[in-house]
Write a structure and sequence with these properties.
This protein is about 0% helix and about 55% strand. By secondary structure, the protein is an all-beta fold. β5 and β6 (about 50-55) form a beta hairpin. The protein starts with a strand and ends with a strand. This is Gluconolaconase. It comes from Mycolicibacterium setense.
């Protein structure tokens, strides 16, 4: 068995409420703080800026024309935001979901979003394909809380963290955005519940196991190659960025399930240096 390499993380940014959705874009790290109702960006030197004021903001992505797309948590909404930080369009998609969560815009503009669907007394999960007009077509169903989304370097495989399934799934993406039947990219074991993820240039996936206080790098088949443990809080979501793509930013939130619903949380971002750069997904 190959040994797992441990990596230490260092502090980067404090003072968040509930951080989510980190993305490297335009030489800055963008992320959401849904409980604070904001989308932020921050440079490598720590210079923080409020980019958008938006309640329940969760996932982020950019269309080819530069439009920022923001999904929400605890509401089924998608928003378009212009370069000035103004919301130019909002879409209510409650006809297909109770809530959205993470969001991924592929390089060609195809946009995928987590869907949490009320099914009687339970919540099932799906993935939606978002049209330019905000309409959503459900392209995957029956998932156990889909969460982080990323495209592998082949450009045609969508990786999804299935939080309650304790695994990462892989879907072949068709030319029209349809998804094939899922295969298992990695089984993480019953004690790990994957949250946000990002993809590196070698096809490895960094994923936060939120309630297990660790970020892992896993490869197809399930081998864990690297691990970053944290001293407290939820390991929510990673993003690769920085000037050379080798800085791994780690969003950590100190909360509980009850606290999150009540708006009680304290968030921060850590950073670590890694050997394989990112590929801009998500």
């Amino acid at each position: 068995m190959t040994s797992v390499e441990a990596i230490a993380a260092a502090p980067f940014l404090d003072g968040l409420v509930y951080g989510e959705g980190p993305r490297w874009h335009g030489e800055r790290l963008w992320f959401t703080d849904g409980l604070a109702g904001r989308v932020y960006s921050v440079g490598e030197a720590g210079d923080l800026a409020v980019e958008v004021e938006l309640a329940r903001a969760s996932g982020l992505g950019w269309l080819p024309d530069g439009t920022l797309v923001v999904s929400t948590l605890f509401a089924a909404e998608l928003h378009h935001v212009d370069a000035a930080g103004s919301v130019t369009a909002s879409y209510d998609i409650s006809d297909v979901a109770w809530s959205t969560n993470d969001l991924l815009v592929a390089p060609d503009g195809r946009t995928f979003v987590d869907l949490y669907i009320a099914d009687g007394r339970s919540i099932t999960g799906g993935i939606g394909l978002v049209g330019a007009d905000g309409t959503v077509r459900v392209v995957a169903r029956g998932l156990s809380m889909p969460n982080g989304l990323g495209i592998l370097p082949d450009g045609s495989t969508l990786v999804v963290s299935e939080t309650h399934g304790s695994r990462l799934l892989a879907f072949t993406v068709g030319l029209d955005g349809s998804l094939g039947s899922p295969t298992v990219f990695a089984e993480l074991g019953p004690d790990r519940h994957p949250d946000g993820l990002c993809v590196d240039a070698a096809g490895g996936v960094w994923v936060g196991c939120y309630d297990n206080a660790e970020f892992l790098r896993v490869i197809a088949g399930g081998e864990i190659t690297h691990r970053i443990g944290i001293d407290r809080g939820w390991a929510v979501a990673p993003a690769l960025g920085g000037h050379d793509g080798r800085t791994l930013y780690l969003v950590v939130d100190d909360t509980t399930h009850e606290g999150l619903l009540a708006g009680s949380s304290t968030g921060r971002i850590l950073q670590a240096r890694v050997g394989v750069p990112g590929v801009g997904s998500p």
